[in-house]
Amino acid sequence: MARSAQRPSLKKIPQEAIEAKEATAEIVILQPIGYPLCGIIEEYPRIEEPELFECYARMQWNGYIARKNDFLFDHRMFPDFAYRIQEVRPEATIIGQSTTIVVNQEEKEKMDIEYPVEIAFDDIVGQIKAKRKCKLIERYLEEPERFGKWAPRNILFHGPAGTGKTMVAKALANKTDVAFLPIKATQLIGEFVGEGSRQIHQLYERAGELAPSIIFIDELDAIALDRRYQELRGDVAEIVNALLTEMDGISQREGVCTICATNRTAVLDGAVRSRFEEEIEFVLPGKEERKEIIELNLQTFPIEAEVNLSELAKLTNGLSGRDIVEKVLKSALHHAIMDDMEKVEAHYFEKAASGLQKKETNTHLYA
Fold first, then answer.
1. Tens digits of per-residue pLDDT, 306-344?
2. 232 has a pLDDT exceeding 60
3. Cβ proximity of 349 and 332 under 8 Å
4. How far apart are CA 170 and CA 161, in angstroms?
5. DSSP assignment of 125-186, as one string?
6. Checking phi first, is residue 105 left (phi over 0); if not, alpha (psi -120 to 50) or beta?
7. How confident is the model at residue 27 (pLDDT cuts 50, 70, 90)?
8. Which residues are 155's β-sheet partners?
9. How many CB atoms within 10 Å of residue 334?
10. Pick from 103, 259, 85, 249: which is nearest to 179 by CA?
11. pLDDT above 70 as % of the chain
12. What local confidence, expressed as pLDDT, does residue 301 receive?
């Protein structure tokens, strides 16, 4: 069977494209815009050598048809960083090796990743041992030059969820009046290989600029899980290696303290765990501490509360401070308000605590 002859394409080529192929742009003026999506830290390229950048840009965008207000994306050193074409002469002509490329650089403020901290150690109930051990970090941040190689650079906070690890780190930053750079490890896992490791290095560079400073990495086990418990992705391996490089202090950053937090020390990668000079344990509150947590938080209730503190402290045995506040006190308050009560009666607290304890027991039965 004879193959049917292909019909030639009758699609008309735009006149603009034909003219563009015949004309090379004399000058293209660019304005740096930024990335389509913002990461944890925005790395904003600064052009130090305009002549060198012009050569780099010609090689990269050679053959592109330049139109005013179009975007050009970097594909090499800063992938996906965008420049807007502010002006091109003549309009709709191609970028060639003779095109003059000028960048209008405007100062752009660096992304602020240090956050104001208003938590004091006195606001945190219990964790006496953890607070005491934090005095070492406090002294280091106040006088980093005195410690030298003996500096406590890498600290691990570990213990059950909701026991105050993040609050203590914030209180430490507040007490020493240093920059606090918090990040969840899960935020470092990006779409592309290399993205997370780049953010790690940027994070430490920023911390070095702000030193003395605290880098707080929460949920460390999300990236530093022992390889026996996970199928390691290439990007996660790169993030871990980048973190190890920074923690080893190959690039000396005096006055930078890394505090990582986890509630799963048993499954942490051994190579990562060995980098911590100090491990500080956070424990569940005892009866008197639970009583104090309840009493302190009831003071901020919008309506009156009727409760036996000792009895409720007994009912909340085994709960973290966060669970007591979020799952017992808040639940009781909300149910009382929904019932149009003028005050939160004792049975609301008892029901919330008992229901939570029952749920916890059932969870353990099927674990």
1. 999 999 999 999 999 999 999 999 999 999 999 999 999
2. no
3. yes
4. 16
5. -S-HHHHHHHHHHHHHHH-HHHHGGG---EEEEESSTTSSHHHHHHHHHHHHT-EEEEEEGG
6. beta
7. very high
8. 259, 278
9. 13
10. 259
11. 81
12. 95
Are 214 and 255 in contact by the 8 Å Cβ rule? The answer is no
Highest CATH level, class, for 287-365:
mainly alpha
Task: Quick: pLDDT tens for 171-208.
Answer: 999 999 999 999 998 888 765 556 778 888 889 998 99
Kindly list the domain boundaries of the chain, sorted by start residue.
15-103, 121-281, 287-365
Average pLDDT over residues 112-119: 63
Contact 257, 152 (CB under 8 A): yes
Using the 8-state DSSP alphabet, how is residue 191 labeled? S
Instruction: Show Cβ contacts of residue 70 under 8 Å, excluding neighbours closer than 6 positions.
Output: 84, 85
Cβ atoms 349, 319 nearer than 8 A = no
User: What's domain 121-281's superfamily in CATH?
Assistant: P-loop containing nucleotide triphosphate hydrolases (3.40.50.300)
- 269 or 158: which leads in pLDDT: 158
Give, to the nearest 10 degrees, the angle between helix 195-210 and helix 234-247. Answer: 20
> What CATH number should be reported for the domain whose range is 15-103?
3.10.330.10
Triad 245, 77, 112: Cα angle to 5°: 65
* Residue 245: DSSP 8-state: H
pLDDT averaged over the chain? 84
Those residues whose C-beta lies under 8 Å from the C-beta of residue 355, and which sit 6 or more positions away, are none
The single-letter code of the amino acid at 108 is K
Residues 6 or more apart whose CB falls under 8 angstroms from that of 246 comprise 200, 201, 204, 253, 258
The residue assigned the tokens 């009831």 is 298
Residue 263 reports pLDDT greater than 60:
yes
Global pTM value: 0.69
